[in-house]
Amino acid sequence: MFKNYTEAIMWINEISGVWLEFLLNASFQLTVFAMLIAILSFFFHNRSAIFLLCLWSLVLLKIMLPPSINFPFNNQTQWIPEIVYPVLTLTALDASVEDTQLSLQSCLFIFWVLVAIGLLIYLVFKNVKFYIKLGDSTRFYRKYIPANLKKQFEKNKIQLMLNRTIPIPFTAGIFRPKIYLPGSAMFWQNDQLEAILLHELAHIQRKDSLVGLIQHLAQIVFFFHPVIWITNRQINKFRERTCDDFVLANSQNTALTYSKLLISFIDQSSRSGMFSHAVNYFHQTNKILIQRFQYLINQKEKIMMKLNLTEKILIGLFVCLAFGISMLNVRCSEIQQPLVENEAVLKKEINSEEFQKFDQAPAPIGGFQAIQQNLHYPEIAKRAGIEGTLVLQVQILENGHIGEIKILKSLGNNGCDEAAVKAIQKTKWTPAFLNGKAVKVRVAMPIIFKLPKRNSKDNSNPLPPPPPIKSKTSANENDEFKIVAYDAEPTPIGGFKAIQQNLHYPEIARRAGIEGTVVVQALIDESGAVVDTKILNSLGDNGCDEAAAEAIKKVKWQPAAKEGRPVKVRVRIPVIFKLDK
Fold this sequence. Notes:
Helix content: 40-55%
Oligomer: single chain
Strand content: 15-25%
Number of helices: 17
Structural class: alpha+beta
Largest sheet: 5 strands, mixed
Number of strands: 22
Radius of gyration: 35 Å
C-alpha cells in the first residue's frame, strides 16, 4: 500500500487532519443539540414515555448525521465574493519530503483508533460468548403462549425459547428475533407470562435491538464524549418505560400488579452483567427498576402510546434542527464554473461601490495555463513537504490589469502565498463586461500546491542543497554600535545551557533540513535584561532567526560590569541549529 515509511506517516498526518476536523465539528454540534434536548426534556418531563423516547432518539439521529453535508451540485452561494474560478494545481516536479514525523493530531488519531478497535473487539467477543451460552436453549411450547398473542408471534416470526441458566427474560436478534425466558417461566401465571411477552413484543415491533446496536457503535466512535453516555442512558430508560406502557395498554394487568412483577426481578439484577449488548433484557439496575415502579404507580393520566399533535410538531422541528445544524457547514463537492455570490451578502463583506454585476466574467489571457506557467513552488516549501490550498481575492480592473490582491486563506510563512500572488500579477486578463462595457470586479482564486508522489528508489533527481544564506549585516552597520569598555563580560544566568533549553527548532526548518548558525546581537542593560536584538547572520525566512532571538530574550543575564558598576553593552551570540543524524 505504501512504498516506504515516510509515505505512511504522510498519509496518517493527512487523514488525521480530516478526522480531527470531523470529530471536533461533530462533537460541538452534538453537545449543542443534546443540551437543547435536555432542556426540552426537563420542561416536558411529565409527558408520555413515547414522547421522551422520541426526543432523546433525535440525539442519536444527530450522531448519525455528518457535521457538514456535501452536495454534488454547485449552484449554491459561496462566502468568496463574485466568482470562484476552477482550481489550479501546481505540482513540483523535483520535490521530496524528508524527516517526516507524526504530528500531535496523528498521535491522537492513532490512540482513538486503538481504543475504538479495542471496544469493538470487546463488543464482538462479549456477544459471541453470550450466544454460545444460549446454545442449550429449548423451544417454549406453543400451548403456553396466550391466545391473544399467537397471531402477533406468527406475524413477526418470533421464536420463544426457554433457558434455565438465565435469570430474567430478554429479546435477542434483529431480523429473526427470539424471546428467551428463564426456567421459572414454567411456573408463571398467565397474566404474568402475558405481561412479559407483551413487553418483549414491544421491543421487537420497534426494532429496539437494531437501535441498541447503533447506540453501542456510536458509543465506540465517541467513547470520549459524555453526551453519548448520557443519551444512551436516557434512551434505555424511556425505552423500557414505553414497553411498560405498551403492556398496561394491551393487557388486563394493573399498574400495581405489573409493578410487583418488576420488583420480583430485583434479586436477579446482580446477574444482569452477563448479558450481551445486542439484547434487550427486562431491566438494567435496581435503581432503574425502582424508577420504573414509581413511574407506573404515579401515572395519573391515560397511557399515551401515540404522539399528540403538539408532540409531533416539536419532534418535527427538532428533526429539521438536526439537519439544519449540519447544513450550516454546507460545502460544494466540486467547482466547475464561476459562481456569483448573493448581492446582499456581498455588501456586508465588501464596499458596495466595488460590487459590480457583469454579463461576461473576466478570464486570463492564454487561459488558466498562463497562470500555471508563472507559478513556481518555493524551495523552502518543497523541502518541508508543504502542501495545501490557498485562496486569493483578486481585483481585475477595467483595462485587465491587476488591482488589489488579498489572501483569504494562507498556507503560512513558507513562500507559497507570495509565489501565488506573483503568478497572478504576471498574468494579463480580459476584463469583465456589463452591457458591452468593461467593468471592475473581484474574483476568488483557489490554488492547490501539491507535491508529486516519488519512488523512494528513484534518486535520478536528488534534491539540491539549500541556497547559501546571506548575512543581513550591512557595510556600515557596525558604525551604529557604541563600544563600551568593561571589566567583567555579561553571562547568562544558568550558563549558555539556559539559552539551549529555551531554543526550539522551527518545524518548517526541521522538515526542510535547514542547518546553520544565526548570529544575534543582543543589547543587555544594567539589570541583566535583553532589551533589544538584531540579526547579524540569518538562516533565511524559516523561523530560525526568530527562534534564536526569542531564546536569548527569555534568559536572564548577569550584566557586564566596569569598576564594579553594571553597564549596558552589546554582545554577539552565535546560535547553532543542527539536526540530529
